[in-house]
Amino acid sequence: MPLVEKVLTLLPHSGDHQAKASFAVMLFGVQEVRSIPHPETLIAQIFEWLKTLDDSDLECCFYSYLDMPRALKYSQMGLSSAQSHGNIRRQTQAFLGLSWIEWQLLQTYQGGQLYYEALSLMNIAQVEVLMGVSYNVIQEKTRATLNFREGDMSTSLFHKCLKSGWGQFNEEVSHCLERLADITGWSSGHDSSWSIVFLVHSLRAKEKLGIYKALQFIGDVHLMEDVKITAVSLFTVALDGFTYMDVHHSRAECMIRLSDIAKKNGDLLKALELCETARPLFERSSQTKRVQDVDERVGDISEEVKEQHQKNLAKLAELNVPAGQVEDMDSDAEELELAEEQVRLIAA
After folding, report:
1. Which domain of life is it from (predicted)?
2. Most buried residue among 69, 87, 103, 122 by CB atoms closer than 10 A?
């Protein structure tokens, strides 16, 4: 970006602090596509420029654009500034930013994903983070203060965000409800009724993606409560919706949950098929850790299939099934089902 480089060299020589500050803040807003040389120096300059301006909106916007380590430091300052100026939109943005940071830290504590999800697609919640930053790096800096009460704080911040944005800023409300509804990101004591609230909100707002995500989250609740029949129905409907919308990551997550249920029901071949189908979807959505998880699942299920196959062959041998028939069954996974069926028929 040659033009940007040229402007950067001219910034210190310009007398227009408003223009300098606005351009510099904009750079932090697009930092996921363009790295900023010497960001700490630029941050210090922006603070100096902001002191000469009466622009609370730009100041709050600047705080929200900073990446995770800096946002953790400055988001509270942004909230205080927005509150002192009565800026409702920026208050909502600040609450959402703080909620997101606390949620990510809680995910770190509970062993969550290794990469941060960028929020660049949200035009209100713009707490930008750099993809690829290890959770361990953040964890080392925050371990002293991170404990189970962080979960309560994070939930409380989401509640404040909802209160600020309800009826005014639909995107913030949808985002907060989605985080609250996803029980996989919270401790076991989290209120699972948020998934219903998220579904109702998505239906009223006619947000198709939100509707299918809410159904997936409600399915998670039923799966946790071991109501497998209902969970299967919900995951299947959500999967159909995600497939129609071509949302790779969500499709894969539904498949993994259906695979888990199939495995619990003893249908190992179906469980294996679902895992193998989900793997490339995780790859396309850059979910490296989930790909590794799927590989482990496939390995474990494959071993169980082999063990079950050997047990069935042994049962057939004990029941005096002709040796040639037993040998023919030893080559293909599809024949495992035939072997199981014959065991049931002979035993009957």
Report:
1. Eukaryota
2. 103
How does pLDDT run across 291-321, given as a tens digit for each residue? 889 999 998 888 888 888 788 777 777 776 5
Q: Which two tokens stand for residue 242?
A: 């995600």
The residue among 181, 128, 179 whose CA lies nearest residue 157 is 179
What is the CA 258 to chain-centroid distance, rounded?
Answer: 19
Rounded mean pLDDT of the chain? 69
pTM of the full structure: 0.51
- What integer pLDDT is reported at residue 279 of this predicted model? 92
Q: Two tokens at 14? A: 């310009």
DSSP code of residue 33: T
SS3 content of the chain, % helix, strand, coil (to 5): 75, 0, 25
233-250 b/e with 16+ CB inside 10 Å = b?
Answer: ebbebbbebbbeeebbbb
Q: How far is CA 310 from the centre of its chain?
A: 40
Rounded Cα gap, residues 56 and 45, in angstroms: 17
- Of 309, 277, 33, the C-alpha closest to 317 is 309
Cβ–Cβ < 8 Å for 336, 269: yes
